Amino acid sequence: SNLSMLGGEGKPQVVFVLGPPGAGKGTQCQKIVEKYGYTHLSAGDLLRAERASGSPDGDLIESHITGGTIVPVAITVRLLARAMGNVPNGKFLIDGFPRNEDNMTGWNK
Q1: pLDDT digits (tens, 9 = 90+) for 34-53
Q2: pLDDT reading at 4 higher than 50
Q3: What is this structure's pTM?
Q4: Would you say 41 and 94 are in contact if contact means Cβ atoms under 8 Å apart?
Q5: How far apart are CA 109 and CA 107, in angstroms?
Q6: DSSP H helical segments within 1-109, as ranges?
């Protein structure tokens, strides 16, 4: 996986930030970013940006969001990997992912 090459020293440090909407995930992430130098990646923000891009994945994301279903894990992992590839220190807070066991399985592949 291209994720294993990040950070220059093996696998990236990834912390999954989980909780219901309004629980303060974003607030806590901001504090961790400021104090420890992690990069905060929001799965929801990445999905919304891709949806707005008009790409084929964006169209698929749109159909899942409108239908109220979870976006396929391969798409979310691909967007996260792309965003992670642009960060040299390899330290990440990932907010809003995984959403279920299938997401975690997809992440671990």
Answers
A1: 999 999 999 989 999 999 99
A2: no
A3: 0.81
A4: yes
A5: 6
A6: 25-36, 43-53, 56-67, 73-84, 101-108
